[in-house]
Q: What sequence folds into this?
């Protein structure tokens, strides 16, 4: 097992039971930094109607959310993902091959959404089954001049027919660490918002896809600053 200190996030890494995949997850002690919390009941996230998560400090937060898809068998379109470049697959603004999504969280967002960093999922029909894509879209993350803005992502090794899509995000002012499916896929985003800072930062659940998705659970916590013991050897 490997542990690392990196900003707010302290994480550990290990091989899963198959011995073929690395799992990465925040260490348990991170939970001790949680303070006030908010929960949302199960609800449908409809297209173009983002839901604001209020009651926490969104600039420094820990968020756990789970999504379920109402139906997959009614969407027969097949995407030959090997023939589509990564820039298209991992771009939130592209709906090529999407059965569901993009949907997920808008972190470090301004009240008017002119600034936002989207941590999102897409579900595509692929071969005889479905594939889940996780992405981070930083194209609208900052109104500052000269800030590099991009999209990037990865595939999540789950079967959306049988498993819910889960996401945990640790947000720490300019760093967003996102863990999908219990740490099977991880994305770190470094952003530099101009408006969405401190108390002005907002957090939303969103869905840009043509079909509604079910948010089965959401719990979010404000996070206090970690006290680092500089005498400890890692």
A:
């Amino acid at each position: 097992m490997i542990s690392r200190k990196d900003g707010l996030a302290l994480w550990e890494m290990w091989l899963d039971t198959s011995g073929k995949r690395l799992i990465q997850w925040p260490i348990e002690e991170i939970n001790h930094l949680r303070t006030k919390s908010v929960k949302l009941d199960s609800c449908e996230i409809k297209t173009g109607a983002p839901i604001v998560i209020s009651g926490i400090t969104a600039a420094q937060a820990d968020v756990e959310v789970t999504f379920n898809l109402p139906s997959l068998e009614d969407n027969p379109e097949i995407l030959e993902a090997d023939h589509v470049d990564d820039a298209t697959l991992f771009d939130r603004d592209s709906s090529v091959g999407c059965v569901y999504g993009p949907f997920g969280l808008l972190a470090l967002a301004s009240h008017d959404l002119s600034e936002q960093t989207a941590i999102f999922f897409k579900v595509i029909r692929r071969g005889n089954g479905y594939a889940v894509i996780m992405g981070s879209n930083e194209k609208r993350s900052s109104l500052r001049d000269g800030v590099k803005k991009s999209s990037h992502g990865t595939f999540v090794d789950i079967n959306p027919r049988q498993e819910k899509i889960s996401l945990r995000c640790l947000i720490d002012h300019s760093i967003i660490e996102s863990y999908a499916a219990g740490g099977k896929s991880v994305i770190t985003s470094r952003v530099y918002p101009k408006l969405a800072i401190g108390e002005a930062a907002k957090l939303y659940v969103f869905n840009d896809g043509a079909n509604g998705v079910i948010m089965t659970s959401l719990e979010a916590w404000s996070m206090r600053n970690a006290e680092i013991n500089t005498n400890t050897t890692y």
User: Anything to note?
Assistant: The first strand starts at residue 2 and ends at 6. The mean pLDDT is 87. The chain has one domain: 34-223. Helices lie at 86-89.
